[in-house]
Structure formats: structure tokens, C-alpha cells
């Protein structure tokens, strides 16, 4: 969960720096190492798809009707603000059920490590545009989702009974 390419949003956080995203910007050197590692596959849930989600009052009201400890906790402690993106929830739901994601693209991604004004910004290339000297891996980037299905999945997970501990 991280990266930002070109989010379609009026959120002022991304107006001047659309390629800066907290998870990669917080430790660009670590992100750089991860993005160059020889993983079998890297799937990215970026800002671009996350800003399509929101914990709305209507969704929160539906969560509050739940009886599970998770639903009660979220219902009690969630405070709504202007933008209530469900970044991590989307990444987790897509991991559990990849069919929630309806569109992806492949890009090669790195992070700007020059200690100037763009330090920590996301760099990306298509396969045709990737500079030869960059030893970065292809990322599967999630770009669209079945939003009603995602919300249903979120509600189902929040209202699921708490699993019992496995006895030793």
C-alpha cells in the first residue's frame, strides 16, 4: 500500500505533489530497496485507487449496526473528516479477494533519492520508457475497483464473528 502516480482528486494534499505519498516518502531508501528486490510479484494499492473510497456517514451508520467487536470499535471511535479514504482497508480487501480489483496496469517504479525538493517522490515508467540503467521490477498497479463489492466486503469482514483461538 503506497505510491501515488496521478490521482484524480480535489484533495489539496495531492495538488502540488501528486507523486508524493506518505508510505514511500517516509523512508524513500527503504522503498527503493523493496522496489528493486527480486520478488516474484509486487502488487501496489496506490493513492490513485484509494481516493475512490471513503468512509461516508452512510457507510459508518451501516458499520454501527454491526454487533461484532470490530464493528463496535470502528463505530465508536471513527471520526469523519473531509476525506476518509480507506487506503489500508482496500489493500487488505484486495489481498483477500483480488477480484474486487477490476483494472490494473504494469509499471516499473522507483523513488527519487536525490536530496532536493522531489526527494521521496514516486518515479514510474512503462516497459518501453524504462531507462536501461534502472534495475527495477515490474509492479502490478491497481487502478480501478468494484466499489459496491468492496464496501460489501468491508461490512462483511467487520461484522464477521471473531475467530476463536486455536487451543495448544
Number of helices, where a helix is a run of at least 4 consecutive DSSP H or I residues: 7
Oligomer: single chain
Please trace the helix and strand order, writing H or E for each element: HHEHHHHEEEH
Distance between the termini: 34 Å
Tell me the structural class. alpha+beta
Biggest β-sheet description = 4 strands, mixed
Mass-distribution shape: globular
What is the CATH topology assignment of the domain at 14-54 and 85-159?
Inosine-uridine Nucleoside N-ribohydrolase, Chain A
CATH homologous superfamily title of the domain at 14-54 and 85-159: Ribonucleoside hydrolase-like
Mean pLDDT level: 93
CATH architecture of the domain at 14-54 and 85-159: Alpha-Beta Complex
Spatial sequence of strands, sheet with the most strands:
1-4-2-3
Percent range for β-strand residues:
15-25%
Radius of gyration: 18 Å
Please identify the top-level CATH class of the domain at 14-54 and 85-159. Alpha Beta
Low-confidence stretches are none
Helical proportion?
25-40%
Number of strands: 4
